[in-house]
Structure formats: structure tokens, C-alpha cells
């Protein structure tokens, strides 16, 4: 038995691992029926202007109300859905649900931002799917934003690029999610009709007032550089994972356009984040770092 010989992790057959794999695939196999039974739902999280505290839009985040396991976060099933190809169906449900709900909010949420998996973007039917959803729900294209990760755009295939151009021409907004942690191939900023960069929360985590934490300077300099890069390309920048007033204030001082994170609002039912300006008063009262300049 390979495992007995020095506890090698490369054993031919590991029963625990095997059980875990079976459980994962059972979970994946349950996705289509769960869609039909209405077990998936969307939470929404506000994207807030760092300039005036207004809500610019909301991001749709999928959850699974599993009958036995409780409410599952996307990290426990999105990967599986991608591996098995079921993401196309699940992602289609997410898109449809987000468009339908966003249309009903009217002006209370300027746009809804939907995460797209690699497979969805590389599938020939994407443009047609989005077009029909917009037509069916009546949501104006400007009120839909699609979030792609850097790894989604890693491949240089022409088809997805063409599809995204068509969607952008319709007026759909295109954001790069988790910017700065993927492959950072800057060529896609040139080749794709991107409108927004969402900078990964890990750069925000280290952000503190310089006097308090000199080590936070590196994250701050990276963020500042990303902001100038984005602005030089006429893109807006949203910082993810903003948890404190101090971080929001630093981001505003750096020139970042918008923030998303627990400080502005946790993901939850749409009613919770529509039509209010979360944390505006608190933010305005924080240390006036952004002085004349
Ligand atoms: P993401 O698109 O980068 O979404 C942001 C994640 O950060 C969300 O986790 C959100 O709950 C979390 N977050 C928000 N504010 C804070 C904060 O202040 N601090 C911290 N520590 N975390 C914060 P969630 O909802 O678990 O989603 C995880 C990832 O799953 C998403 O990352 C996205 O990549 C993926 N995902 C979610 N919904 C969908 C979907 O409908 N389709 C696809 N393909 N992927 C999805
Ligand atoms: Mg996202
Ligand atoms: Mg993100
Ligand atoms: Mg993420």
C-alpha cells in the first residue's frame, strides 16, 4: 500500500480522497434539479461611489439553499459547476434572474453586475443569450455589467473577444474582476472593450493610514498605480473587500472611484441595498486625508 510506505500523498488509491471526490460529484450532479426546484438565489452587494457615497450598482452573488447542507456559498459549488460544464446552465439562470430582478428595481440600482465563468464566455451562444434576456426582461443593456476574471481572458481566442465587442457595442458594461491577482496580461486591456477594473480585495486589506502601518505603503502604491493605469485608459476602478472607514478614506484619497465590501454593505437581499447611500455620513466624517490636491 503506497500510503503506508512513508505516508506518501501520491498513493494510488486514497479512500478519504475518493469519498471526498464522490461527495463533490454528487453535489455537482444535483445542480440541474436544484435549479428546477428553485434552490438557487441571488444576494446583492452595493458598489458605492467613493466621491459622494451614492450607490452605483450592485453585484449579484449566487447562493444555493441546499435542503441538507444549508445555504452554500459559491466557492463550494462554482468550481465544480465549471469542471462539469454545468456552469453554462447555472450561469444562464443567474444571468436571467439578475436581469429580471434588476429590471424591476428601475432607477433604484443603476446597474447589476453579473459574474461570468470562463465556459460561458467561450461558448458560441453568449451574445444571443444576453440579447434575448435583455429583450425578454426589458432591461436596458447599460444596466447590465458582466464581470470576467483575468484568467477568463487568458486565452487569446478570437471568438470571446468578438462576442464581448458585440455586447459592449450594445451598451453592456464589461468589468475585469479580481484585477491584479490573475495573469495581468495587459494586452486584453487594449483588445477588449473593458469599462471597469475591480481591484482584488487583497490589496485593500493591507491598506491603513501610513502613520499607523508603514508596511501598508506597498499595497497603497500598487493601488495608486492601478488607479492611474485605469484612469489613463478611461476605465473606472472599484476596490473590492473594503471593510473599514479607514480603507475607504485611503482609497478615496488615492483616487479610486468606487468601493465594494462589508463597510458599505454585506451581500444580502436586494431590498437591503437599493436606494440608500450606505456609510456616506460615516465616511464624510473620517480623517480628511484627501485635502486640496
Ligand atoms: P467575487 O466576484 O470577487 O465576489 C466578491 C466576494 O467577496 C463575494 O464572495 C463577497 O461576499 C466577498 N466580499 C464582499 N465584501 C467583502 C469584504 O468586505 N471582505 C471580505 N473578506 N469578503 C467580501 P462570495 O459571494 O462568496 O463569492 C465568491 C466568488 O464566487 C465571487 O468572487 C465570484 O468569483 C464567484 N461567484 C459568485 N457568484 C457567481 C456567479 O453567479 N457566477 C460565477 N461564475 N461565479 C460567481
Ligand atoms: Mg465578481
Ligand atoms: Mg472580485
Ligand atoms: Mg473572487
TrEMBL record:
- TM helices/strands, residue ranges: none
Highest taxon listed in the record's lineage? Bacteria
Q: Where is the EAL domain?
A: 24-281
Q: What is this protein called?
A: Diguanylate cyclase (GGDEF)-like protein
Biological source species? Micromonospora purpureochromogenes
Q: What is the lineage of its organism?
A: Bacteria, Bacillati, Actinomycetota, Actinomycetes, Micromonosporales
Span within the full-length protein is 307 to 599 of 599
Amino acid at each position: 500500500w503506497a500510503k503506508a510506505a512513508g505516508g506518501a500523498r501520491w498513493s494510488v488509491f486514497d479512500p478519504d480522497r475518493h469519498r471526498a471526490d464522490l461527495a463533490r460529484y454528487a453535489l455537482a450532479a444535483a445542480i440541474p434539479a436544484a435549479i428546477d426546484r428553485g434552490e438557487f438565489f441571488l444576494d446583492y452587494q452595493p458598489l458605492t461611489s467613493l466621491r459622494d457615497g451614492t450607490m452605483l450598482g450592485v453585484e449579484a452573488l449566487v447562493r444555493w439553499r441546499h435542503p441538507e447542507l444549508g445555504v452554500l456559498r459559491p466557492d463550494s459549488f462554482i468550481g465544480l459547476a465549471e469542471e462539469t460544464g454545468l456552469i453554462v446552465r447555472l450561469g444562464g439562470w443567474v444571468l436571467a434572474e439578475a436581469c429580471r430582478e434588476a429590471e424591476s428595481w428601475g432607477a433604484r440600482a443603476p446597474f447589476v453586475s453579473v459574474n461570468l465563468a470562463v465556459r460561458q464566455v467561450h461558448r458560441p451562444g453568449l451574445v444571443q443569450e444576453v440579447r434575448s434576456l435583455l429583450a425578454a426582461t426589458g432591461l436596458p443593456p447599460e444596466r447590465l455589467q458582466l464581470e470576467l476574471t483575468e484568467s477568463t481572458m487568458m486565452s487569446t481566442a478570437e471568438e470571446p473577444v468578438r462576442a464581448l465587442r458585440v455586447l459592449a457595442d450594445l451598451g453592456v458594461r464589461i468589468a475585469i474582476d479580481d484585477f491584479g491577482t490573475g495573469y495581468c496580461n495587459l494586452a486584453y486591456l487594449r483588445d477588449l472593450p473593458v469599462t471597469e477594473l475591480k481591484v482584488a480585495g487583497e490589496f485593500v486589506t493591507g491598506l491603513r493610514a501610513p502613520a499607523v502601518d508603514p508596511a501598508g505603503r506597498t499595497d497603497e502604491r500598487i493601488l495608486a498605480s492601478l488607479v492611474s493605469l485605469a484612469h489613463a485608459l478611461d476605465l473606472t476602478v472599484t476596490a473590492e473587500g473594503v471593510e473599514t472607514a479607514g480603507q475607504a478614506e485611503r482609497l478615496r484619497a488615492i483616487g479610486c472611484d468606487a468601493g465594494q465590501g462589508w463597510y458599505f454593505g454585506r451581500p444580502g437581499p436586494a431590498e437591503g441595498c437599493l436606494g440608500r447611500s450606505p456609510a456616506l455620513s460615516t465616511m464624510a466624517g473620517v480623517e480628511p486625508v484627501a485635502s486640496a490636491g
